[in-house]
Design goal:
Radius of gyration: 17 Å
Mean pLDDT: 97
Bound molecules: pyridoxal-5'-phosphate
Number of strands: 8
Shape: globular
Order of helices and strands: HEHEHEHEHEHEHEHEH
């Protein structure tokens, strides 16, 4: 538990996978965590964080940015089109690009604002009806369309179904990334980030194992 323990475990997983040290980015998922816990991780020198709601991020990160330099913020939750502009202002990366309407909005905002966050296309690898993401069968075409819009698509992202073997989903996502020439793989959470690294994860999203359990609700 805690930041240093997770960093050690990531380093070990990199070595075990025959990967160079520092090739996995640790996104500390701070959603719903008390500000004091987030500040403690910032005080330990960590700068890369993930939030799943624009509104919540807008409520805390502008203040943290006044006190800490170099914060790198990742949106890892679903994004409504009407919050896209605010997301562009707050986040350096967005992991949940999952539909044509959002891609078109991003392309327009990128033109208007002169910058665009790094993007990951979310793939619903488990084909779960309640979950966001493009279906695996539609991923190649959607990624092509996004690249044709000149969007800076860096990789793909998935959230495996809770009751299935995550390895199958990590392997599928890695395959989709590779065949589309995308090197970024956003996969792995507190319970399975080491396994994700063994399948090539470049970005792991770890919350409770760093900060402790989230309050319910
Ligand atoms: C909350 C969340 C995480 C982190 O989950 P933990 O199990 O606390 O590590 C990772 N990814 C997404 C998309 C999340 O919403």
């Amino acid at each position: 538990m805690g930041l240093n323990d997770i960093k050690d475990r990531i380093a070990q997983a990199e070595t075990a996978a025959g990967r160079a040290a520092g090739t996995v980015e640790l996104i500390a998922v701070s959603k719903v965590q008390p500000n004091a816990r987030v500040a403690s991780v910032l005080d330990q020198g960590h700068r890369c964080f993930g939030e799943n709601r624009v509104q919540e991020a807008a409520g805390k990160w502008p203040d943290f940015r006044e006190s800490y330099d170099g914060i790198d913020l990742h949106l890892i939750g679903p994004l409504q089109t009407n919050k896209a502009r605010q997301a562009f202002e707050l986040f350096q990366s967005i992991h949940t690009l999952d539909r044509p309407k959002l891609a078109k909005t991003f392309a327009r905002l990128a033109q208007e604002m002169g910058h665009c966050p790094q993007l990951f296309v979310q793939v619903n690898t488990g084909e779960e009806p309640q979950k966001a993401g493009v279906l695996p069968a539609d991923a190649d075409e959607f990624i092509k369309d996004c690249l044709a819009l000149d969007l800076p698509v860096r990789g793909v992202m998935c959230i495996p179904p809770v009751d299935e073997e995550a390895a199958l989903h990590f392997a599928l996502l890695a395959k989709i990334g590779a065949r589309n020439g995308l090197s970024g793989l956003s996969m792995g959470m507190s319970s399975d980030f080491e396994k994700a690294i063994s399948f090539g994860a470049t970005h792991v999203r770890v919350g409770s194992a760093i900060f402790g359990a989230r309050e319910a609700g």
